[in-house]
Amino acid sequence: MSNEFLKSPTAHLPGAFTRRDLLFRAGSGLGGLALSCMLAQERASADSRVPSPGRRFPNPLAPRIPHFPPKAKSVIFLFMVGGPSHMETFDPKPALDRMHGEKLPESFGVIKSQFTDGRMKLMGSAWKFKKYGLSGIEVSDLFPHVAKCVDDMAVIRSCYADSFIHAPAMYQMVSGRAAQGHPSVGSWVTYGLGCETENLPAYCVLTQPEGLPEGGAPMWGAGYLPAAFQGTLLRNGPKPIMDLDPPPGMGHSEQRRMLDYVREMNEMTLTPDGTDLSARIASYELAFRMQQHAPEAVDLRKETVETKALYGVDDPATAEFGSRCLLARRLVERGVRFVQLYSGGGPVSIQWDAHDNMVENHTKMCRLVDKPIAALLKDLKRRGMLDETLVVWGSEFGRTPISQNGKGRDHNPSGYTIWMAGGGVQGGRIIGATDEIGYRAVEDRVHARDIHATILHLLGLDHLRLTYLHNGRNERLTDFAGEVIHKALA
Amino acid sequence: MTSILHAILSLSLLHADSGAARPTHWSFRKPVRPPVPKVKNVAWVRNPLDAFILSRLESKGLAPSHEAGRRTLLRRVTFDLTGLPPTPQEIDSFVGDRSTKAYEKVVKRLLASPRFGERWGQHWLDVVRYGETNGYEHDGERPQAWRYRDYVIEALNRDEPYDQFLTDQIAGDLVAPNDFNKRVATGFLRAGPQHLTGGNQDADLNRQEWLTEATTGIGNAALGLTVGCARCHDHKYDPIPQADYYRLQAFFSAADNSEYKSVTPDEQKAYDAKVKAYKDKLKPIEDQIAVIEKPYRAKLRAKRMATLPPEYKEALAVESGKRNAKQKELAGEAGVQLNVSWDEALKALNPDDRARRTALRVQLHKLELEEPEPIRTAMGVSDVLKPVPVMHILERGDPHVPGKVVAAGFPAAIASQDPSLPAAQAPPALGRVALAQWLTRPDHPLTARVMVNRIWHYCFGKGIVETPNDFGLNGKRPSNQELLDWLATSFAAPAADRSPTAESGLPSSLIPHPSSLACGWSVKSMLELIVTSSAYRQSSDYDAVKAGVDPDNRLLWHMNRKRLDGEAIRDSVLFCSGQINLQMGGPWIKVPLEPEVVDTIFTESEPDNLWPVDPNPRQHARRTIYLHRKRNVRLPMLAAFDQPDMMSSCAARGQSVHALQSLILVNSDFMQAQSREMVNRLINEVPKDKSLRIKRLFTITIGRIPSAREFSKTQQFLKDQAAIKRGQPAGPSAGGVPRRARTDQFAAWTDLCLAMLNLNEFIYVQ
Q: A262 and B755 in contact by Cβ < 8 A?
């Protein structure tokens, strides 16, 4: 496989940036002889028939030109872990409210889900919906802040997934397949586009402090793509990335001296075909840069009081998720390509998985995220960043129109809502519909693969052409299907 | 739901390819033993495989590279065969050995080393995507899966012939029902992930997922074909290839997962007693925890009770035996509403109670390390399904849409050349034994070719077929098919069956071991043949002219440089620091993980004790193959250096280079600790003479002494680093570090050792 990997990162993308472009962009502050050495090689090889393995060993995360002009440069994917109810948030179902307490009409068949037997009674929404913005899109009282942004949002009410079990459905939402082990969308995006900054990881993952989504770390794994494309967990605070800082007892100046020694020694054994070796030399410089820049990127103290208040950092309920939304903006601002942000994880009480009590669960969970998410959209917009930043809000599935345990709802992969904003998305638009009780998506049905095709499209990538040969198959994010959701495009 | 079974790209292609009008794809034709080509530079040919390489080079006007220096060669072959660097003593001994067979002696020594099975076992575990947990959300542990890992290591160490090795893994339970180890071998069919979860179960789907995994596993590992990975509906192929896929799957239709125990009633009794004693030890602590929580839980429950709608309260008020149907339902729902979760209870505790509870939990977890060893169990498969379920072709792979019935049968495109093969029949008439027999026929078009190509890949960094898991139409064509076929026929030929001189046309003095030309499926013989060849012994030096002719080195005009994989890096660091614990086999080891990594273990339960580290620190220095292989959480160093995720077969490790690798190699606790240990070792071995000590360090880590320039740079570095350290306030107190560590000198040496472990020369093998 290694040989495919060596060639394919550029092979799928004609007209990629050359190493030289990258090095010029990277500026002169690198101080890395290794980089200038690589540059010299690149120049030399351009004029001769000597193979340039340098192109086979570029920094795998160097920025690359997309297939066609992109609308978005980066993505922030807000993943609500456990499956929020669409009927309580973005998909009003007055008929369901009217039928509250009644048996499911036979015309709907038997609802299949993980825990209920499908014979429970219908349950209406405990929340009222109101129209918002110029578009008049209806949003429930659970999302009063996000509701004010509807004119920037394309609300897709007709999503569906293949599994009613969390982990497979989560894998599908992040990798297109319900089977574990395929590369996540952030990995595909960074594989296709590289990253605008070398100071930070290209693909950052921000999780709920209490724990992970059920799918675990494979949700940001690179699958069979090279390890360079796996997501990196990033935290607020002084240690944002694991092993970022020199260990206790080693100061920065000693480390610098040590890295210089390593570089000098490595340069002495460098051979003309040693571009993999040069890449390793450069990787130390990149690591050193990350050490210098990552702490600044996660330092929210630099933000104004007004901005922090906007994200709810000053309110105990919203401080945690608000900080992560603010961090997401700061990362994107600094050139990070893909930010995956999870709300919920670990104990059931901190997931959107309202089996027992819709009111208790969603009141709590929405309160945690509503203001921060709205702030993220507003803040991106006022900074002129929303045009280039695609924001996706979604989950692995929605919830059943019938109740579970009287007050809760079970998993419903047959119909649910995802919305997208910014980055080339047409705001103020509703796409698709579920049936009158919110069970099945019936109009303009949208699968995770279609969401993925659309994300890639907005980034200037053709999902059919972004491929990677693995065990005899040209794998792609969208597997065998996937269609761009044209109705969602501006 | 992986219901949507990917059908059969390659088999579809096989079929498409097997049409009468088209010539059969090269890899589906039986290998024909080619004549050894004539070459000009006869002196270079050490064994016939060299002639195959050389004749291609000569036809392009190229000469092979000179032989690598002894130190380089020793380092290369030691890593390739054992995954570890040579020791200074081994280097001295080889460099000083002027006998003509000095190198051959080294090869024999390495092949006989127990480290061999550990290295090559890892390769096989990659191919079968071996993991010790199930994957998916619960990622549950497979407590005795490690027995399969040990089986693989032992089989390779005793050079189990590959046909037997494969047979035992496919049908060990059938060929020797009372042989525990052969039962363990069938763990191959369960090495992959398995989705196990709660709630409403779809038994058909679960079974189909296992069948898919087993069939895919055979396809990848033995046939080198992607049998399970494409969707039928979206390819415009005839439905027959889909039938071929299900025919292959039908060999397993009588089989199911089985946990085979061989235990006497006395052993069982003793075990039960141990378990009881263990539980009796835990009980009082568990009770104390419950006592602490009780009032808090009661209070939380009462609070919930107060907000419960009246109809629920009324239902609960009725005595449980006297509730009517409606009341029963409401009471059941109320039970859910009133349930207090662990995290709610924990949050409610006052600080004192919480501290007491925490202390008790710590005590509990300490006792849990004493859990009795479970009864010896082989995690494998056996033919337990009676009557044997009928196998259907599944529409879109969906077990709920069964199509035509099929019986077990061999894929037509490969087997059609063989009229002697039995026609399709259902198991047990045609079952796993028949499948194994077919696969291990010496003239099977794929089995031997696929395996020798894997061996070649691990030796040269690149296979003769560069896609070792794909010999189908999507795969790469072999760079030298004659060579591949010569190797494959040598590999599968019954040992001592061929007379080497008769066919090679070479002077007999140039043929090293007659036996190695007919390996009888011996992996070690094949390896010996390869690593003693001139082709393997070439230098990896660059040559601009040759690179101009053959930039990808397909002709092998020099050796490919190979990056160590994550396991080899970790093992070598431990080896060089002197800390490695070479104990073999046994249950997996959990080594300390960074807290950030422990946090990535998913759980809905209380997250303490998610990763109970082995209490004996010496166990933390075991070779990587013995560390717990959890599918969802991997050691950062291994993951960063392209360890596969154990979800699909990995035939060739990635070789990525990225910044996080550098952060780990410079800053991680592991690297720091091992660098300190290395200084201890050095001071111990070379107490006084610092120049000698520097030379020793170079020899230990990169297998050579420094050049004059390197030497002076290194001296300067030590001086500078000590000076910087003197100019700095003392670091935090170094608990556990030897007293002499507090000197600047020790710290400078630590940094030097760390630097050596970061050199390209340490991470790459020339």
A: yes
Using CA atoms in the order A289, A293, A294, A299, what is the torsion angle rounded to 10 degrees? Answer: 170
Instruction: Check CB contact under 8 Å for A276 and B641.
Output: no
Q: Rounded to whole angstroms, how far apart are CA atoms A427 and A353?
A: 28
Asked if A335 is an interface residue toward chain B (Cβ–Cβ < 8 A), one would say no
pLDDT of amino acid B25: 86
Position B733 scores a pLDDT of 45
| Mode of pairing for the β-strands spanning A446-447 and A441-443 | unpaired
Average pLDDT, rounded, for chain A: 87
Find where tokens 């997208």 sit. Answer: A420
Residues of B in contact with A219 (CB under 8 A): none
Q: What interhelical angle do B744-757 and B708-726 show, nearest 10?
A: 130
Sign of CA dihedral B87, B89, B95, B100: negative
Report chain B residues whose CB lies below 8 A from the CB of A180: 135-136, 193, 195, 631, 647
Specify whether the CB–CB gap between B27 and B474 falls below 8 A.
Answer: no
Summarize pLDDT for B667-713 with one digit per residue, the tens: 999 999 999 999 999 999 999 999 999 999 999 999 999 999 999 99
Closest CA–CA distance from residue B527 to any residue of chain A (Å): 22
**Span B153-179, mean pLDDT?**
97
C-alpha to C-alpha distance for B618 and B636, rounded to whole angstroms = 21
Structure tokens, B208: 């189909």
Q: Rounded to 5, what percent of chain B is helix, strand, coil?
A: 55, 5, 40
**Residue B633 near residue A260 (C-beta atoms within 8 A):** no
**Residue appearing with tokens 């602590």:** B285
> Is the Cβ of A68 closer than 8 Å to some Cβ of chain B?
no
**Cβ-based contacts of B594 with chain A (< 8 Å):** 242-243
pTM for this prediction: 0.90
Residue with tokens 């299949």: A112
Closest of A439, A346, A366, A9 to residue A192, by C-alpha: A9
Which tens digit of pLDDT belongs to each residue from B362-418?
999 999 999 999 999 999 999 999 999 999 988 888 888 898 898 999 988 888 777
Average pLDDT, integer, range A19-30: 33
Nearest residue on chain A to B762, alpha-carbon basis: A266
Q: How many CB atoms lie within 10 A of CB B491?
A: 27
Tens-digit pLDDT profile for residues B61-101: 999 999 999 999 999 999 999 999 999 999 999 999 999 99
B156 CB-near residues (< 8 Å, 6+ apart): B116, B117, B120, B121, B124, B523
Q: With DSSP H G I counted as helix, E B as strand and the rest as coil, what are the percentages for chain A, rounded to 5?
A: 40, 15, 45
- A477 phi-psi bin (left φ>0, alpha ψ -120 to 50, beta other): alpha
Q: What percent of chain A has pLDDT over 70?
A: 88
Q: What angle do CA B221, B223, B228 make, to 5 degrees?
A: 80
CA-nearest of A152, A97, A193, A165 to A419 is A152
The residue to which tokens 């130190």 are assigned: B71
pLDDT tens for residues B429-452? 889 999 999 999 999 999 999 999
> DSSP assignment of A80-127, as one string?
ETT---STTTT---HHHHHTTTSPPPGGG-PPP-SS--S-SPB---SS
pLDDT digits (tens, 9 = 90+) for A100-136: 999 999 999 888 889 888 888 999 999 999 999 999 9
What is residue A7's predicted lDDT score, i.e. its pLDDT?
35
CA distances from B139 to A218, A242, B5, B136 (A): 11, 23, 22, 5
Beta pairing partners, B53: none
Per the structure block, which two tokens stand in for B145? 């899966």
Chain-chain contact of A472 with B472 (C-beta, under 8 angstroms): yes
At A227 the pLDDT is 87
